[in-house]
Task: structure prediction
Amino acid sequence: MKTTLIMSHPYFEDSRVNRALFEAAKGVPDVSVRHLEAIYGSDTRAFDVKAEQDLLIGADRIVFQFPMFWFSVPPMLKAYMDEVLRGKFINDNGNSKLDGKELQIAISIGAQESEYSKKGSVKFTLGEILLPLQLGAYYCGMTFNRIFAAGGALGATEADIKAHVQRYVKLLRNELEEDEYQI
Amino acid sequence: MKTTLIMSHPYFEDSRVNRALFEAAKGVPDVSVRHLEAIYGSDTRAFDVKAEQDLLIGADRIVFQFPMFWFSVPPMLKAYMDEVLRGKFINDNGNSKLDGKELQIAISIGAQESEYSKKGSVKFTLGEILLPLQLGAYYCGMTFNRIFAAGGALGATEADIKAHVQRYVKLLRNELEEDEYQI
Result:
């Protein structure tokens, strides 16, 4: 299974958790990683749309990796969606060129993942909050995989980060067990 | 009631509905309008954070006006949230400086608003889809007003646009009736 991993972080220079996940992802077989801000800076109109579309077409699984700020994706990832997925780049036969691929969301969140529940402080689940991405995936004919979250990013210890990295590498290798999505 | 209206549109040059709404908003008393892309271009890191924060502090109501693409806000509006609302710019006493203000979402959508329902093609309501903005408002201590939508933007006739504009001006004047939010 070929994976194209799109990572976006508006303040990567301050990143600890996402940086560790991203570095680990680089070493996983059949995973190609792209860091949007490193390639395109902070310009929402700078994308090489054709090149990005070709990379998505060549993948079986697309990963969007980012820190969740304001309950949503970073600006450069939203710009990527607007510019690259525009019209879900329809085939001549009217189908989406992303039809049948998997979309995997992999996020870091400052709070513990348990806060994202009816009983937690946020009151809503990550699935409810990231509904826009699920609907976007369906709109493109993609499968929406279970969300992978690295919780407690604020104040994460080195041991916490190492545990997140281990789970992430397993996810990218398709070896993550159901009970390992949350820790 | 003083209103600061933040409009963001990644492709304003192609806009019909948002352009008409924005032009009409300029003439409403006590409404100050800002077009993010006209001021800051497409650079997500170009914001004058202090100036933007001062404009929000001076308002009783904040309006985010935008076309909904990929079930979410435009990239420059998301960047605005990340950069300007960062840390909800906490007071010395620990409170949000946005505490008690209203957040009003005003969107255009290509499909008819009726599609955004359990029975419609999207299967989810605009309230469910825009939950991230509601949670963001609550996080800042703001009231989240009922969402204003201009549906059917794709293929809207001049008469459709005129009707949307009339409703929008009433909304901004605080004269919109409950049954006028949807048409």
Q: What stands out?
A: The radius of gyration of chain B is 16 Å. The longest strand of chain B covers residues 61-67. Chain B touches chain A at residues 10, 42-46, 69-76, 78-79, 81-82, 85, 122, 124, 128-129, 131-132, 135-136 (CB under 8 Å).
